[in-house]
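Exercise: predict the fold of this chain.
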Amino acid sequence: MRLKAPATTANMGSGFDVVGMALKLHNTVQFEKANRFKVHSIGRYGLEIEDAAETFRNAIERFEKETGKRVPALQIIQECEIPPARGLGSSAAAIASALFISNIMTGGRIPTDALLEIGTEIEGHPDNIVPCMVGGLTVSYYDGSRLDYEKFEMPDHRMTFLVPEFKLSTEAMRKALPDSIPFKDALGNIKNVSQFISKASRGDFAGALKYTKDFIHQSYRIDSDPRMKELVDRIEERNPGYWFVSGSGSSICCDLEDTGGLPYLEAVIRTSPANEPFIVEM
């Protein structure tokens, strides 16, 4: 049996820790019972995945703790097409896969919302794990104990993700954030994310993307890494209609067609929103 876990883009500029969206870019995960637990990573980015076994094992053990069910030993092979540590939800895809596999292998009786709660507790924030598990664009609330979300289906709108050759740590990027922000910056984000969600909820995704400008987190993260600063400066020189850092970075989503000459660029991924949830194949 195998499943396809989508990449996700989180924050989307003004929606810090709230907005996320699944993308038509997937890791394919095959799994079967085995004599002992094993995880193999293959595919384009397979050699870059250093902690796959630990990520899967931790999520499976958390599932067992929360549900009281025992997951049999498994052999898991993940074909990695999602760039790791680039802000496209590679870790969330692995955690979500582990939880779905655990549920399937123990009878499939745990509802998706319960899996979402486990996944969010592991991740610490909902904006990758929720869209990964349910698809579409999601607006989530999580206060450390209660999770709530809304899902909106998006039109087939082409998006461009610039994937740098360098990786960024989510933990390090969170440490770059300040303890407080100016009132005017908070107000600017409230205005933008309100318009973003309003337009996205009506299916006007192109209109929503005009309101991704952020004032509360991106500049601090960008300024903490000279490579990110140089890349963003070069992007802004080309006057894009919009741009935002995907998750904690290092990938950047924008509407540039000509990406030639941009520094540090490893790949350009052109994709679109994925409305379908996890794809399970026999």
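Check your answer against the key: Residues 222 and 228 are 5 Å apart (CA to CA).
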